[in-house]
């Protein structure tokens, strides 16, 4: 079931353009943007594809932060920049200018090897296409990032995660022997087992039926509520977004709206207003 509305009051706000904020409020805004409690944040993030007359702006100087121990969904029309924002903040793509931070680490200052280490050691990823290695078992896919890093897997935590995700009897199976929902649960276990600082999901339920989708979303919700995890997903699905504590909406590369613990009809109405 989507997240209960008991833990946070409903709230809706249009994000202000920082240039229009009075001077006496500017320091407070800056403190918010640079908040120490953010698991990830962007400051003036700009992404442009191409040059000259063919240039396309995917992100238009975005300032945003994602709080620790919170589930955030990113929504917006096709081409709004939502996937680009997540990819830049997760170190999967480089911004044209501005900065993306994981904790206090500025990704723009990292070399390629350092970026690879950060993604492997501090982040978890769940993609629409599962990204499992077909020749490895489910158990081997789950521990693969830790094995590559030469890190020992906490066996008690591994067993807890795989039990919770209903994978205990499927660990010796290869991806082709698993359903789509089971494959995505393996991907969730892989993201969770190393206890990353933040889990990024790019349309994590996009290839799943409604039952499997609900299972994966419940897993992510539990990771936040019980394991103090931080989760950020990109989704076009209002039902998926309703599991989040907070939803930010993009249009034309800018954040244009924000909702907290909304109902599905409120999400749909907001998307309709943005698209129209």
From TrEMBL:
Region spans: Disordered: 1-23
Lineage: superkingdom: Bacteria
GO cellular component, one term: membrane protein complex
Keywords: ATP-binding, Nucleotide-binding, Transport
PROSITE patterns: ABC_TRANSPORTER_2
Domain ABC transporter: 40-276
Keyword Cell membrane: no
Skewed-composition ranges (Polar residues): 10-23
Keyword Transport: yes
GO molecular function, one term: transmembrane transporter activity
CDD domains to which the protein is assigned, alphabetical: ABC_MJ0796_LolCDE_FtsE
Family assignment from sequence similarity: Belongs to the ABC transporter superfamily.
PANTHER family given in the database record: CELL DIVISION ATP-BINDING PROTEIN FTSE, LIPOPROTEIN-RELEASING SYSTEM ATP-BINDING PROTEIN LOLD
Name of this chain's protein: Peptide ABC transporter ATP-binding protein
Species per Swiss-Prot/TrEMBL record: Corynebacterium alimapuense
């Amino acid at each position: 079931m989507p997240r209960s509305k008991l833990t946070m009051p409903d709230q809706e706000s249009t994000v202000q353009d920082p240039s229009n904020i009075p001077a006496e409020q500017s320091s407070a805004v800056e403190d918010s943007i640079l908040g120490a409690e953010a698991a990830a944040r962007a400051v003036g993030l700009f992404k442009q594809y191409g040059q000259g007359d063919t240039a396309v702006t995917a992100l238009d100087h975005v300032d945003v932060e994602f709080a620790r121990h919170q589930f955030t969904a990113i929504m917006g029309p096709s081409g709004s920049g939502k996937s680009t924002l997540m990819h830049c903040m997760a170190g999967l793509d480089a911004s044209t200018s501005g900065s993306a931070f994981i904790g206090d680490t500025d990704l723009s200052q990292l070399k390629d090897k350092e970026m690879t280490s950060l993604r492997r050691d501090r982040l978890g990823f769940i993609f629409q296409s599962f990204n499992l290695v077909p020749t490895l078992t489910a158990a081997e896919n789950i521990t693969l990032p830790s094995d590559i890093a030469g890190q020992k897997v906490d066996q008690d935590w591994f067993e807890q995660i795989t039990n919770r995700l209903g994978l205990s009897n499927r660990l010796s199976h290869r991806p082709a022997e698993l359903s789509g929902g089971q494959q995505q649960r393996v991907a969730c276990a892989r993201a969770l087992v190393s206890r990353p600082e933040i889990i990024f999901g790019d349309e994590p339920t996009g290839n799943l039926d409604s039952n499997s989708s609900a299972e994966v979303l419940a897993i992510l919700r539990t990771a936040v509520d019980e394991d103090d995890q931080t989760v950020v997903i990109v989704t076009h699905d209002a039902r998926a977004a309703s599991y989040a504590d907070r939803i930010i909406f993009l249009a034309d590369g800018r954040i244009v709206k924000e909702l907290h613990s909304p109902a599905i009809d409120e999400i749909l109405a907001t998307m309709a207003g943005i698209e129209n």
